[in-house]
Design brief:
The chain has about 180 residues and is an alpha+beta fold. It is built from 5 helices and 8 strands, in the order H-H-E-H-E-E-H-E-E-E-E-E-H.
């Protein structure tokens, strides 16, 4: 039926691949060598919190698992962020914990509530970059904020070029959403 879907202009939903997160530590080495941007040890998971005791219990379990390394916050759009802190040299541990949060939500049936995960980097001259994983698309994209809610487009495109062979990147640039004020960025 793929040819019929193509003929009728229908597309298949992309399935998330949370294991793609585990490619981040090696991609970070490439990113640091090419741009000087190093991991900060901060990462976040963004999701829309659901009502009910099952979701509250799951969120409490996740927060208990990660202990003092996790902070909860909400943004102006109604999304909940869990910020995870690790030593900057322990990117593999950070990614493992972000994967655990995502997997816990997905496994409990709250996968549709997941929006994205991000890992932040910084470098010389105060440059900042987040590598963002879009849960519903199963792809990554770079986001480089500047003061005044502006973006460093040149750095984003440079990071895309560097990460192209390392991570499944989002090809549709219109889906490179800014995450202004995201915890950890």
């Amino acid at each position: 039926m793929r040819w019929l879907d193509a003929l009728l202009g229908r597309t298949r939903a992309v399935t998330p691949n949370l294991d793609a997160l585990f490619a981040l530590p090696s991609a970070a080495v490439t990113l640091q060598a090419a741009t000087g941007l190093a991991p900060t040890g901060l990462g976040s998971v963004c999701f829309r919190a659901a009502e009910g005791s099952a979701f509250a219990a799951l969120e409490n379990d996740v927060r208990a698992l990660l202990g003092e390394r996790v902070e909860r916050s909400a943004d102006a759009y109604g999304y909940t962020w869990l910020l995870v802190r690790r030593a900057p040299s322990d990117l593999a541990g950070l990614v493992t914990e972000l994967h655990a949060v995502n997997s816990s939500l997905e496994g409990a049936g709250f996968g549709p509530s997941l929006l994205c995960s991000l890992v932040s980097f910084d470098g010389p001259g105060g440059r900042r970059l987040a590598v963002i994983y879009l849960y519903k698309r199963g792809t990554f994209y770079p986001f480089a904020p500047l003061p005044g809610e502006r973006r460093d487009n040149a750095l984003e495109l440079q990071a895309r070029g560097v990460l192209a062979g390392e991570l499944p990147l989002e090809e549709d640039l219109s889906r490179w959403f800014p995450v202004w004020g995201a915890p950890g960025l």
